[in-house]
Amino acid sequence: MSSYLDLGGCRKRRRGGEKVFKFKTFGENGCPVEFDGSFRDNVKALVEYGQLEVNLCGNGVFSWSFQLEVHRHPPLHVVLFIVEEQIQASSSSSINLHCKRCQYVGWGHHMMCNKKYHFLLPSKDTVADCFNCDETSFDDPNPEKGKFNLVELKGHIMHGVFHSNGFGHLLYVNGMEMGSDQLAGYQIMEFWDRLCTGLQARKVSLNDSSKKRGMELRLLYGVAYGHPWFGRWGYKFGRGCYGINQPIYQKAIEAIQGIPLCLLNHHLSISNNDISVIFSRYQALSDHSMVTLGDLFHFMLELRSRLPKENSIDSCNPATVETNCRWSPKRVEAATRVIVEALKNAEFRWVSRQEVRDAARAYIGDTGLLDFVLKSLGNHIVGNYLVRRCLNPVTKVLEYCLEDISTVFPNSEALIINNSKAKPRCKITKVQLMKDIAYLYKHILKDQKPTLSTGVFSAIPMATRIILDTKFLVKEYTEELSMKGNSNCSNGKTFKLLCTVISRSDEIDEGLKKPLPPYECVCLKENATFDELKQEVEKNFREVYWRLRSFVVETIVNLSVKGLDLVMGSVEMGQKLVFIGSNEDQIGMDDGGGSGIVDCLCGAKEDDGERLISCDICEVWQHTRCVRIPNNEEIPHVFLCKQCEEKIVFLSSLP
């Protein structure tokens, strides 16, 4: 899908004088605005530089567009749309207004915000559908109502949404391979990350469902790098499904990364020689020993990033044994061949270094020469064989093994070890590399054979499922606004406090029973009084939260002051304050929106976005997967949980 938006083709859109910004710098401080306020202030400052669009997302919804130049030669532009969605315009039902994405990631206690801000990079086709250039003008005061809504259309290159409290969600990233008129995934993510940083977002979540050629990237990159693909931009474990927590997730990553290649190769080569061939192919390319499964996938993905798209690189560039030593090349070559013969006599099994050395001493009396060659020979190619060297993970003893690579590189010629001018003999293309990655992914990580269900390999299917069940990632940008310098303040206000509120109805003698809203940075003048502070707090929280439109501050927790007392001197700069107040609407500060009590066998206590089923007696929700209802089956009309079923059986047995 192309991201090139040729909006010049829309006759009625041509308004002239529309500024074009650089895509690669948009969102940085000063481009197009100095981001020196709170999140809401920064958004307001940004949209002043955009082109106001009329009726783009329905009547009464404000939206702005920004023309962004990706590169000039060849010309490539995208358009960023910012859509301000008012809660009143969304729905009249408070249940519908509750953000499910916040609930899934653990922010369900947050109150509903007054506004959402959608940031969209539409595709060319999406823009064409929405604008209908031949019939509808942006500036037409009477367009056909309800025909299109940019926010609701699918197929965007990027779609992110923020609540007015600075918490947001990245909904879509549809990147493409680099081309003449396309944006790659990493370009979109860098753009999004600049926006979040510049706007001073607090936290941003995403549901990682990214795939490439059928491979789940959170699993592939988890094995290779210890973090998902989005981890390159600081996104980390947010919340796992099915009761998975961060320590469990981390142990799963470590377990699957640490699977020894030597044991895996020995185990799989019995039934699948192709995997052994692939292992040998990339061990021959690597200039260091690859010991674990994580090492192998890390090397292959790093190689992919360095490999030209259409070309290939040498994949069989055997490093030579050093010849700048006290032994002649002829003696080094002779010792090498003796060691290879000793390994051949071992019938391709792993043998200790001492065993190889003892066998070679029958022909080579110089132990110094043998030690030198054994040290230099690990993971080198000799003729049609790859000499592998690995530390046994159990005995901690250095071991050697010989692998026949004639099937990997069938057209290769014998290699003279002491010839420093030996030429590379084979090439690996990017296409072949991706095929090999997909093959290993399928046969080791995804579709495990029964041979991988015992012993140390039983960790693979379990760890794989844990990693795949960890979908919600979070990046923390500015959880609490900085107290340094004069950022986030304006109009001469330099004294900053972190403030939050609690409803009088939610206060109890023992403390505060409900989670507090996120702290807001309130800026004051140095001579401000506590009455002015209370007014500023009311203004901020009324502006942010739907439930606090009529909130009135009454007192401050653990602080006894008078209204005309000066704030400075009574509290320290950056101090956290909790304000108690009341709502005229008598509406509690908990928005609800949940689906009832969740108490699943896996340990989950909250809705995590996976399919749930409710017991018809106790009305407790559980995952369908945990009660063994396959996802491809419909939910039964009548369902009893295990506890209720046991109670019924017990009662029926009574006389």
UniProtKB/TrEMBL annotation:
SMART domains: PHD
Superkingdom in the source lineage: Eukaryota
Residues in PHD-type domain copies: 597-647
SUPFAM superfamilies, sorted: FYVE/PHD zinc finger
GO molecular function, one term: zinc ion binding
InterPro entries registered for this protein in UniProt: MS1-like_ubiquitin (IPR057765), WHD_PTC1 (IPR059080), Zinc_finger_PHD-type_CS (IPR019786), Znf_FYVE_PHD (IPR011011), Znf_MS1-like (IPR058054), Znf_PHD (IPR001965), Znf_PHD-finger (IPR019787), Znf_RING/FYVE/PHD (IPR013083)
UniProt keyword annotations, A-Z: Metal-binding, Transcription, Transcription regulation, Zinc, Zinc-finger
Name recorded for this polypeptide: PHD-type domain-containing protein
Organism: Gossypium armourianum
Lineage of the organism: Eukaryota, Viridiplantae, Streptophyta, Embryophyta, Tracheophyta
